């Protein structure tokens, strides 16, 4: 029989506060969910913090925690978090080396082959070199047989790299593959040429030989100015063909913030704007994978407060704009921002360059309460039915909300909003808290609270899982993501 005192004591000691004074929870009461709600937004956290969050999740469920690590790394369909995954991978290699060894194939499939360098100087290093040598030998055989090969050669370190650390790892790789440095260089060169690595043609000054339509998304994103500088006629012809719809440009591994950052998102007067127009980036924006399906009655609310400066605000605005454009429901081309006051944004214009000008600039406060109250006020004032309100609100934020003026006792910010809506005869819409910059352990509900889900990271692929799990508890929504068949290969 559960002790009432202990239950109340646990609730009391689970109370914390955001940086701006709002009541929150230290934990969802599930270490797995605590990690899930933050794992995509830990880029600014110390390695020790990442290890702490993962170790407690691992103790709760080894398989699900391991799946979560690979979900975080998954470049296509996951969060694409490289540093966080590598911190976890190195930690796991020491704590449970057998788990890492069992999942070498998953590292290659869901991440990149250069992730394996994280395992140098760990208990699994010998097994790692054996695995890479087997793949290297297989690729050589397939190369000579004119068969497809893996991308191993692309991601192996070069011995003649400008970075001392990269060159050191390149020399170590040559040694562990049983090759002289010269033979290693020559072998890498022919394998990279065989798989048509863009950088090989660039370094050889063979710019006109580059098939731009086949250049990977991130390489095109990084090098498109160099392509134009060295092959102006060829690249211009290609870009014109893309604009006309006669050629394609890859963008599968890009995120909205990539494009906003490259265009120089900044505040001018009272609104955001870009430093310049870039036709290639406009086309890559249009070519981002579409993870928004169906006519969803969903409204995105983007945090544009002062604490979001830098990449977090690029993510919140980029993701909000991405969803609004692709949404086919009642809120197509519409989203809200919140800071000291909420704003309803109607997306206008034919280009990303024009659309970004619709968005008000940063204001310091994080008054999410005002945004919730605006929705409620409009509903009450106009006697709207619940069906006429958004069915779900996606709040893209750093979770550091202002103190709620309607808060009582130890109500969390979210509980305060629920009670305020109920007092006016409305049920709170389903809410998704999407954390893009986790600086502290702050949560709004526990794991079994129905009608709230959690997400994290910068990837638009998160919208797919959000839309598929509306109405569930945070824990059940997490399970839906981690039990996706793409993670069936993960084993412990």
Automatic annotation (TrEMBL):
Residues 298-468 form the DUF7788 domain. It comes from Cellulosilyticum lentocellum (strain ATCC 49066 / DSM 5427 / NCIMB 11756 / RHM5). This is TROVE domain-containing protein. InterPro entries: DUF2828, DUF7788, UCP015417_vWA, vWFA_dom_sf. Signal peptide: none annotated. The lineage of its organism: Bacteria, Bacillati, Bacillota, Clostridia, Lachnospirales. Residues 18-108, 179-288 form the DUF2828 domain.
């Amino acid at each position: 029989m559960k002790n009432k005192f202990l239950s109340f004591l646990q609730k009391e000691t689970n109370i914390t506060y955001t940086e701006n004074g709002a009541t929150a929870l230290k934990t969802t009461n599930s270490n797995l969910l605590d990690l899930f709600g933050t794992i995509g937004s830990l880029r600014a956290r110390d390695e020790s913090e990442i290890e702490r969050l993962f170790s407690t999740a691992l103790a709760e469920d080894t398989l699900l925690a391991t799946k979560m690590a690979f979900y975080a790394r998954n470049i296509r369909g996951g969060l694409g978090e490289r540093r966080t995954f590598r911190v976890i991978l190195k930690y796991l290699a020491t704590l449970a080396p057998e788990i890492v060894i069992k999942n070498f194939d998953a590292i290659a499939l869901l991440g990149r082959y250069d992730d394996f360098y994280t395992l140098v100087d760990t208990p699994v290093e010998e097994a790692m070199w054996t695995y890479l040598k087997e793949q290297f030998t297989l690729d050589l055989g397939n190369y000579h047989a004119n068969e497809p090969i893996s991308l191993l050669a692309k991601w192996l370190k070069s011995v003649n790299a400008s970075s001392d650390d990269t060159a050191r790892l390149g020399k170590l790789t040559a040694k562990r593959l049983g090759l002289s440095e010269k033979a290693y260089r020559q072998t890498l060169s022919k394998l990279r040429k065989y798989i048509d690595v863009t950088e090989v043609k660039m370094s050889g000054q063979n710019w006109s030989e580059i098939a731009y339509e086949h250049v990977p998304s991130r390489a095109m994103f990084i090098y498109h100015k160099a392509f134009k500088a060295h092959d102006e006629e060829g690249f211009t012809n290609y870009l014109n063909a893309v604009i006309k719809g006669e050629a394609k440009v890859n963008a599968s591994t890009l995120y909205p913030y990539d494009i906003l950052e490259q265009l120089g998102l900044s505040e001018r007067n009272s609104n955001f704007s870009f430093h310049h127009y870039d036709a290639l980036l406009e086309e890559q924006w249009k070519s981002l994978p579409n993870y928004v399906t169906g006519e969803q009655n969903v409204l995105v609310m983007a945090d544009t407060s002062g604490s979001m400066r830098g990449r977090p605000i690029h993510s919140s605005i980029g993701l909000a704009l991405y969803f609004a454009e692709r949404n086919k429901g009642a809120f197509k081309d519409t989203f809200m921002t919140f800071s000291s006051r909420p704003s309803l944004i109607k997306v206008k214009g034919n280009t990303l360059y024009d659309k970004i000008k619709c968005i008000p600039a940063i204001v310091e406060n994080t008054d999410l309460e005002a945004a919730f109250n605006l929705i409620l006020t409009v509903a009450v004032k106009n006697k709207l039915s619940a069906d006429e309100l958004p069915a779900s609100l996606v709040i893209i934020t750093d979770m550091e909300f202002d103190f709620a003026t309607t808060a009582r006792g130890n109500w969390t910010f979210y509980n305060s909003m629920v009670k305020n809506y109920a007092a006016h005869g409305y049920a709170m819409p389903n809410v998704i808290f999407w954390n893009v910059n986790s600086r502290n352990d702050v949560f709004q509900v526990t794991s079994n609270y129905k009608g709230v889900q959690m997400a994290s990271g910068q990837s638009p692929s998160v919208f797919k899982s959000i839309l598929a799990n509306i109405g569930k508890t945070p824990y059940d929504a997490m399970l839906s993501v981690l039990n996706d068949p793409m993670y069936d290969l993960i084993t412990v």
